[in-house]
Amino acid sequence: MADITDATGLTKGSIYGNFENKDEVALAAYRHNISAIRKRLFPVVNETKPAIERLLHITSFYRNNWRYVSENGGCPILNASIEADDNLPFLKRYVQASIRDWAAMLSDIMETGKINHEVRRDIQSLEYAHLIITLIEGGVMMAKINNEPRLLNGAMDRIDMIIRSEIAK
């Protein structure tokens, strides 16, 4: 709540007056944080470029936006995942939906790449999408907790290697 009151300039009473309960406040905060990341990431991903280049732009996004992500609390999916698992079980389905959407987006890029003969036809796109998400989330977490951007960059380097050597045709 302190972060929300600081960011909005509103009192706790004003904030709670606009929501039914604390769960509604938490969900609104999650949606806001997801939206902020998407607004920065989606233009990079939705460019009309070859699939491999689009995938590589995702790792560039995280390298170039490390400071923004870190200064804004880290990855909202990772943070909400922990909260949903430990304290806010109602949030779990929203986090799961975000992960499904992200994985579907990555998988769609790879499937389009298969059609355009850029991506190996034998790869399991959804499995690779989940692997990429896992490496991104782990890299963000390690870099943030240790205040070491090189840990994120190492994870992004590994994703780039996977894209070039296992996914690309």
Automatic annotation (TrEMBL):
Lineage, top-rank taxon, reads: Eukaryota
Ranges for the Tetracyclin repressor-like C-terminal domain? 51-156
Q: Which InterPro entries match?
A: Homeodomain-like_sf, Tet_transcr_reg_TetR-rel_C_sf, TetR_C
Among Gene3D superfamilies, the record links this protein to: Tetracycline Repressor, domain 2
Q: Which residues form the signal peptide?
A: none
Q: Which keywords annotate this record?
A: Transcription, Transcription regulation
Family annotation (SUPFAM superfamilies): Homeodomain-like, Tetracyclin repressor-like, C-terminal domain
Q: Name one Pfam family in it.
A: TetR_C_13
PANTHER family from the entry? HTH-TYPE TRANSCRIPTIONAL REGULATOR LMRA, TRANSCRIPTIONAL REGULATORY PROTEIN
Q: State the name under which the record lists this protein.
A: Tetracyclin repressor-like C-terminal domain-containing protein
Q: Which organism is it from?
A: Sphagnum jensenii
